[in-house]
Each structure stands twice: as structure tokens, then as C-alpha cells.
Predict the 3D structure of the following.
Amino acid sequence: MNIPFSLLDLVFINKDSNAKTAYENSIRFAKKADELNYKRLWIAEHHNMPAIASAATSVVIGLLASQTKRIRVGAGGIMLPNHSPLVIAEHFGTLETLYPGRIDLGLGRAPGTDQRTMRALRREAMGGHNFPQDVIELQNYFSKEAEQGAIKAVPGAGLEIPLWILGSSTFGAQLAAELGLPYAFASHFAPSSRDEALEIYKRYFKPSKQLAKPYAMVGVNVIAAETDEEARVLFTSIQQSFTNMARGTRTSFPPPIADIETYWTPAEKAMASQMLSCSVVGSRETVRSGLEALVEQTKADELMIVCNVFDTEARLKSLEIIDSL
């Protein structure tokens, strides 16, 4: 397919496993992506989630960048209202200094957790309202002009690290358009506003120093296997995970099961299926046709593929099949 493929790794902690093994699995995943043709590998900030080991996002990015040679590595994303923009500039300035030309910084405004954990992060309840100002402040810390400023990110000032705006609603689309930044829509878990958000972004985009024309990336769950049936079984891990979310159950990432219908209620199935409706699951040809249809519908410039598979070998095989499309 004539479109770049990139990857989002949630650094899942599998059932009966631990965070150390999750990092080891992610290193294997990153190295395979680096060997293949994937453009970038992003890590997402989440907190107080037993299934996800990427809370210290910049640390994990540094780990994976150190184990790869070519692929861009970055945040998809940093939840900026959880942090001081200066601290994030210092973190990513350090990463860019260590791995020049390979670091991306995607920014979101959600807490990446629940309300109680948000308070433990010392985040203000209304912090998201300052997100546009925080993005501009962060952007300024990376500018050439910041090298002469009274407050500098050291390292970071003058590095002009590329920023992305992430979103699952039209808010992020409007902001990315106004600031002239690339935009990534999280349709792999929140697909309902995708088409409207992409239309807003492209309609109102203003060229900037970083970007001359709109550049939109779309998130999609993809699991590829030798047969449609095998891929559908692998997909049941994600379906269980989203069902557990609806139940308010916090667990590690579950292994696949033979029949998902025995796991969820009709209401849970409806909720999980809606959230996962932007998913392409099946054999090589099934995945090819599904992704071609998605690109045709969205006119995306790049796809951010989420390939969450319990078994690492099956996950790596899935990467190879997707890369061969």
C-alpha cells in the first residue's frame, strides 16, 4: 500500500506476567518494526492501569530508541496538562539530543487515567482548559529564539522537535488546524467523531513553520494472521480488555479465548464493538482490503496501527504480514 504505516505500542502487561517482561516484549516489537518498513513507533502515557507499563513515557521512549536504529520513536502521546511544559521540553530535548532526528512528540489533553489518579498526579481538574497555551509554551521552548531566552530547556532550546496534536474529538482538530501542526485521531478506541474531526482539520488548517499543508494520521486496530479465523481469535484479547473497561475491572492483558460470545453480555458487546469499530482483523487479503477502504474513506496521510496481541510471536508475525501489504 502506498501510505506510511506506523505503530502505537501500549506496552501491555500480559496476564500472569510483569512490567519487566512487558518491556522485553516491547523491545522485540520495536526491533522488528525497525527491521521492517514502519515509519514511527509511539508510546502512550497512561497511569494506574495494571495492564499498561508506559506511565514513565519518556523513559520507555528512550529505552526503545536505544534498541533501534532507523525508526522514529515518540509519544502518542504525552498528556500535557499532567506536566509542566518546561519539564517536557527538557525530557524530549534530552531524547532528541541522544537520538537526533528520530524523536516525535504527540500531545493530548486528557489525563490518561481516572479522576482519583488525576488528583494524585497533582493535576488540576480544569488543567485541560490551558492545553492550547501549554502547547504554544512548549513549542516556544524548542524554538531557535528560546536559545536567547531567560528560561531555557537544557537540552531542548533550538532543537525544534516536531509536535503533533492528538485527539478523539473535534477540539484537537481545531487546535491542530489553528497551529498548523500534524494531527492524529484516536479512532482505534474513539471512532465516532473521526470523519468530522478530519474534515474540520483539513478545512481550517493554517500553514506554519513546521507544516505547509495538513497531515492527518488515523489510528486503527489491526491484527493479521494466516487465516481470518486465527486473527479473530487473537482479537478476543482486545475485546475482553474493552469489556473489562466497561465493567470497571482493572486487570492485566488477557489471553485470547475461543468464543468471545461467552464472555460479554449484549450490552457489553455493543459498547466494546462500537469503541472497536475501527478495526481490521483477518488474513493478509482481508487486512489489505480493510485498510484500503479506510484510507479511501478518511484520505489519511498515514496510518497509526495498534497491534495488540497477547502472544509475542503471533504479534511479530502480524507485523510482518501488515508490512508486506
Summary: Residues 228-247 form the longest helix (20 residues). The chain is about 40% helix and 15% strand. The radius of gyration is 19 Å. The chain has two domains: 1-161, 218-325.
